[in-house]
Give the backbone structure.
Amino acid sequence: MIKLNGLLKKASRLPSSVLITGDDFRANESYKAIRTNILHLLNDSDNKSVLITSPYAGAGKTTTTSNLAITFAQLGKKVLIIDADMRKPSIHKLFSLPLSPGLSDILSGNKKGDFVHNTKFDNLHILCAGNPPDNPAELLSNEIFKNLLKENYENYDYIFVDAPPVDAVTDAVIISQLVCGTIIVIRQNHTEKDTLIRTVNRIKKVNANIVGYILNAIDYEKYSYKYGHYSGKYTKKYYNYYRSAVEKDNTTK
Ligand SMILES: Nc1ncnc2c1ncn2[C@@H]1O[C@H](COP(=O)(O)OP(=O)(O)OP(=O)(O)O)[C@@H](O)[C@H]1O
Ligand SMILES: [Mg+2]
């Protein structure tokens, strides 16, 4: 079974905030379809923690993490986002929260306390990244991060972790071993197949669990204006392009 389990169209006009609102029916439905898949895939897991990463920067990890977390909170589930991209933090910007204190402060032992913020979305809580530290990979490797996740498994129904891209630094690979599932965001006209294969291999090498792939920012409009009935074909073309990388992963299941 091909696990490419989510398709997100390219937003034609991006509002100042890319967080979904009730107005964008198509975006809402896409995220809800992905939510259904994740609910199913994590059904039997002890803890419901998901890492969202990508091969390169800019694939849409932060946007996807935020919007998926919102759709889970809409189900009445208690949800926590952890911004573990301490190198290039941005969750705080989307939700208009202070960057610090946050994860880096907890992991470096500089500050003690509960730095989790409530948001304007019911049931959705956020731990921001904190000021960028010198040694993010080392901080993520220490026991404090493991324990932080464990503690929060008790407190939240779902945890979404935003992280840097796999091809650039090791942070996401470290986190992938501590969460129950990893989702890889692929962006149309952006992610190269070889880099995707390298990413999948790096995550598989540490025996982490890739639960799925999200194909983001599909340019439906370009093709559906005159050729609406071809948009399925077009999507299939992109599935096929990434198929060899994804199938390689599936055969190891
Ligand atoms: N489906 C989409 N349609 C249009 N624009 C999108 C879509 N998803 C993300 N973007 C835009 O693409 C840019 C990069 O998205 P985002 O910040 O979520 O990526 P990222 O993978 O977290 O990047 P980084 O690796 O730099 O952290 C942002 O400007 C975002 O608004
Ligand atoms: Mg990001």
Observations:
- Strands lie at 4-9, 49-53, 79-83, 117-118, 124-127, 158-162, 181-187, 210-218.
